[in-house]
Structure formats: C-alpha cells, structure tokens
Write a structure and sequence with these properties.
This protein is an alpha+beta fold. It is 43% helix and 21% strand. The N and C termini lie far apart (45 Å).
C-alpha cells in the first residue's frame, strides 16, 4: 500500500529553532496540529515544549523536525532537544514529559517518521532516542515496522475515573464524614483549584518540600533540589498554560497539607506532582 509522499523534512536547531519558537504563526500552526493529531497530549503541545526549551536552553538545544505541504501548511512536527556534552537526543521535556512522540495525521506519519529519522541520524551522533511512554501500543508497532531498530516494553497504565456522583456518595459515607470532622476540629478545611500566580507562589515552596520528601523516601531522589531549573520551569509553565494544567491545594487552618499538579490532555489529567 502506497503511503502519502512527505516532502523533504526540514530540521530547525539552535538559533533557527529559537526564531521559530518566537513566531506566533508557527506556534499557532503547531497548536492546531497538536489538536488534530489523534492521541496527542499536552506534552507535545507548544506551550509545554516552548516553556521547557526556554527554561533549559543553557543545557538543551531545541531541535524541531517538520514537514510542510506545497502551500507551506504544517503537516508534521517532532519536537526534540540535543544535549551536546552527553551526545543525547531527547524529546522536548526529556524525562519531565510523561508522554512523548511526534505530531502527524495517521495517513502521513509513517512517511514522516522514515524521513525524519534519516535526517536525525545524519545530523546527530546519538546512540539511542528513548520515548518515556507512547500513548498507544500501535505507535510502538509502527516504529518497529518503519525503523526496525526499536525495542519496546509494555506498561500498565493506571487510570482513575472521576465521576461526580461517586465522589458525592463517598463523601456521604459515615466513615469519611468522621474523618472530615476530625480534620475540621484542627482548623478550617478547604480544597480549591489554584488559578492565579499569586496563589501558586503562596504554596509552591511547601508543595515542593512535600514532593521532594516523598521522592527522597521512595526513590532516593529530590527532583527539585537536584535540578535548579525545575522550579522556574514549573512557574513559567503555570503562567503560560493554565488551561492545560490542573493545580489544587488542600488547606487545613490556612496551611497546605496536600497538593496536586497535572497536565490536561482532553478529558484526562496526567499526574505530575
């Protein structure tokens, strides 16, 4: 079966990629492509990627592999990054992008991946390009068919379905009412979504402490402490992409006791913090 022909791909890196990332028309076309690509997530979108590129520019060089039609419309895009000191090619966001991959319509992605891979292997001396998670198993199968040199592992994806009626029913249970009443005796109990930068500023340091403490206990790492750019990246992402984020805080007597940070892709939120 013949696949649609993809024109020669263009690879933008360094200053050329920086110029593209500052171009509102390019960003708009990128967003439209993300919105029209099946199974794409916020991690392949321009707001997440551009914010990460800006926050980590001294360590990672932006690499954008694109294909356009004869009229100049964006057909496909693969947002990547190059770290010269370790000869590492990674997806935009590196390990902080939960889901990784390219943007393309199914009819064109095989041809695009083949052409993009040929260009990448010609321009960069890297050993491995690792995808943290692909959204669908079919994408991994397609990579194996097109590129051949692909090793993939299957992971179970834990999903929690949030249904308002079920949550209300849970809150109405005697045992949960008792728990809430015990908490309320310690102070006013409040749960709210964080929408303003000032609200985030008031709780973010404490949120980071909670997260690093848990990660240190469970995984022997302290992500924010060990990465001096991580706090600035998250603050900038909150300012740039509030409609692609859900941030909540639970407060007891005015003090933060629990928090959540997750990217939003369609009707799903991917747990971040």
């Amino acid at each position: 079966m013949a696949h649609p022909i993809i024109p020669e791909v263009t690879l933008l890196r360094g200053a050329a990629a920086d110029d593209a990332l500052r171009d509102p028309q390019f960003i708009e076309a990128w967003q439209q492509l993300r919105d029209s690509t099946p199974h794409a997530t916020a991690f392949q979108g321009p707001r997440f990627a551009a914010t990460w590129y800006a926050s980590y520019r001294d360590e990672w060089e932006p690499v954008l592999v694109e294909a356009r039609d004869a009229a100049g419309a964006l057909l496909a895009l693969w947002p990547l990054a190059w770290r010269a000191r370790t000869a590492t090619l990674a997806h935009a966001g590196a390990h902080q992008a939960e889901y990784q991959g390219w943007l393309s319509q199914p009819a064109t992605e095989r041809a695009f991946i083949a052409a993009a891979w040929a260009r990448l292997t010609a321009d960069f001396a890297f050993q491995v390009l690792q995808c943290k998670y692909l959204v669908t198993e079919s994408r991994a199968a397609m990579l194996r068919e097109v590129l051949g040199c692909v090793d993939s592992r299957r992971h179970s994806r834990p999903l929690m379905r949030l249904v308002a009626e079920d949550i209300r029913a849970s809150f109405a249970k005697k045992s949960n009412k008792s728990r809430f009443n015990r908490l309320k005796r310690l102070g006013e109990l409040e749960f709210r979504r964080i929408r303003a930068p000032a609200e985030l500023d008031a709780m973010f340091t404490r949120m980071i402490e909670f997260y690093d403490l848990r990660q240190g206990a469970v995984n022997a790492v302290s992500p924010f402490h060990e990465d001096p750019r991580k706090t600035g990246f998250h603050r900038a992402l909150f300012a740039a992409a509030q409609d692609e984020l859900v941030v909540t805080g639970t407060f007891l007597g005015g003090e933060l006791v629990a928090a959540y940070w997750g990217m939003v892709s369609g009707d799903a939120s991917q747990l971040g913090i």
